[in-house]
Amino acid sequence: MLEMRTECEKCKAPTPKAGEACICSFECTFCPSCAEAMNKTCPNCGGELLARPKRTLDA
User: Fold this and answer.
1) How much is the pTM?
2) Is the CB of residue 47 less than 8 Å from the CB of residue 34?
3) What mean pLDDT is predicted for residues 25-54?
4) What is the CATH number of the domain that holds 14?
């Protein structure tokens, strides 16, 4: 199951389950502003940052 991290790894902004966030294939999580500033490239693995799916249930 996808790990839904609750804050941006760069600026520590909240990334709630039903909110906007970007992730790489290793589930590194960033807010949309930080992802844009990093040209949608993960600084940890060099992978592409994509929109994280939203989860509305507490699963």
Assistant:
1) 0.89
2) no
3) 96
4) 3.30.40
The answer as to whether 33 is a domain residue is: yes
**What's 7-33 look like in SS3?**
ECCCCCCECCCCCCCEECCCCCEECHH
**Can you tell me the distance from the alpha carbon of 44 to that of 26, in angstroms, rounded to the nearest whole number?**
9
Structure-token pair, residue 1: 């199951």
pLDDT digits (tens, 9 = 90+) for 13-33: 999 988 999 999 999 999 999
- Residue 49 CB partners (closer than 8 Å, separation 6+): 22, 23, 24, 28, 30, 35, 38, 40, 41, 42
Count of domains for the chain: 1
Q: Which domain holds residue 15?
A: 1-54
Distance CA 42, CA 50 (A): 10
